[in-house]
Design goal:
Distance between the termini: 49 Å
Shape: elongated
Helix content: 40-55%
Largest sheet: 3 strands, antiparallel
Radius of gyration: 20 Å
Strand content: 5-15%
Order of helices and strands: HEEEHHHH
């Protein structure tokens, strides 16, 4: 199907690299640029990343993360909030809004050049 459409396009001339082309099915999961496409057509960050975030937020709540790890967690929470905001709500309900707010408000120092 895609090849038929591409052949109909005169400009720009596109070529499919068969060596890099994969067939993606619902059976094996559909992942694109770090996101998972669910069977109902929604976008998710995926089960593995959610588990990692649960663990990191738990460690942050116990004071077990250093500054670099907190900065990384802050960035990941921002990414997840843009993709799947209801997961942030789940984290707030589980760990408390104050912990999530503390992580999101963590000051990240500017890099020196």
């Amino acid at each position: 199907m895609a090849l038929t459409v591409i052949k109909l396009i005169e400009r720009p001339k596109l070529v499919i690299n068969e060596g890099k082309t994969t067939r993606v099915t619902t059976k094996y999961g559909r992942r694109v640029t770090g996101l998972t496409l669910t069977n109902d057509g929604a976008v998710s960050v995926g089960h593995t990343r959610k588990r990692e975030l649960h663990t990191a937020v738990y460690r942050a709540s116990k004071g077990g993360l250093d500054g670099d790890e907190l900065a990384n967690l802050k960035g990941m929470l921002g990414f997840v909030n843009s993709v799947e905001p209801e997961f942030i709500t789940t984290l707030r309900n589980r760990f408390g809004a104050s912990i999530i707010q503390k992580i999101q408000a963590f000051p990240i120092p500017k890099r020196q050049r």
